[in-house]
Write a structure and sequence with these properties.
13-stranded antiparallel β-sheet, outer membrane lipoprotein receptor (LolB), chain A, alpha+beta, single chain
Length: about 260
């Protein structure tokens, strides 16, 4: 991602001074121009819009775990998403069909589907956005403002603040050379309490002409514990049964 190496303090300071001078001399870009660079970096508008379905398989390691969980995700236009996380034969499911969400939490002893609250479903709504909220933000009811250059792990990034239609807000940190996201900070309200989550992106790989981050490390702001999500495979426009997003009917209890 073009990060500056640690050490050689005087050389780094000199390089940063040179970069600052170049930035001042260069004409300022508008938010739309920055987003256009981001769209091109992802693979271009045509390649992004050509994606109708995504099937993702990988591994998830939650904070404090010493083993990986199987991770499967399917996304379909115009706005459906389902995530399965499996450990020892039990599968946690969270799904959104474009109108409502549901989940199954077998590790809590709940094997029947339960309705997700409006707050809880927001992350799935955001997950179902193929292009990310920066792209076509006005049509999605989002507002984007530029916050300037901000440091991420010792490197400058362009920080773009996004106020989403669902009430959440995000700050996207874009590499100034590659124009891909290196970090996203999300502010969300869950049952009246604000939560701030930080996700770092890396190991970008190209699939069907579009770049995806195959490694995502995330955690709550102020906490050292992180979970690691690693993609093994991303399939674009593979077949998906639309019924996979629908809440299954609960079987009636057997009569005794």
């Amino acid at each position: 991602m073009g990060w500056l190496a640690a050490g050689a303090t005087m050389l780094v300071i000199g390089a940063l001074a040179g970069l600052a001078g170049a930035a001042q001399a260069a004409p300022a870009m508008t938010v739309d121009e920055m987003i256009a660079k981001h769209v091109a970096a992802r693979g271009g508008d045509a390649a992004l819009k050509a994606i109708k379905t995504l099937t993702i398989t990988g591994k998830l390691r939650p904070p404090g775990f010493d083993a990986d969980l199987a991770y499967d995700e399917v996304i379909a236009r115009p706005g459906s998403a389902r995530i399965n996380i499996t450990l020892q034969g039990l599968t946690v499911i969270q799904s959104y069909d474009g109108a409502s969400g549901w989940q199954v939490q077998p590790f809590n002893g709940r094997k029947d589907p339960e309705t997700l609250s409006t707050d809880d479903v927001k992350s799935l709504q955001e997950e179902a956005d193929f292009e990310d909220p920066l792209i076509d933000h006005a049509a999605k009811g989002a507002v984007v403002t530029y916050l300037g250059l901000e440091d991420v792990d010792g490197a400058p990034t362009h920080a773009l603040h996004v106020t989403l239609k669902n009430g959440d807000s995000q700050t996207w940190y874009l590499d100034p050379d590659l124009w891909l996201a290196v970090r996203v900070t999300t502010h969300t309200i869950q049952r009246g309490v604000e939560t701030v989550n930080i996700t770092d992106y890396g190991d970008y790989e190209q699939v069907a002409g579009v770049w995806f981050a195959f490694e995502q490390s995330s955690g709550q702001q102020g906490q050292s514990a992180r979970q690691l999500l690693t993609y093994d495979k991303v399939v674009v426009n593979g077949p998906i049964d639309p019924n996979v997003f629908a809440r299954p009917a609960v079987k009636p209890a057997a009569a005794h």
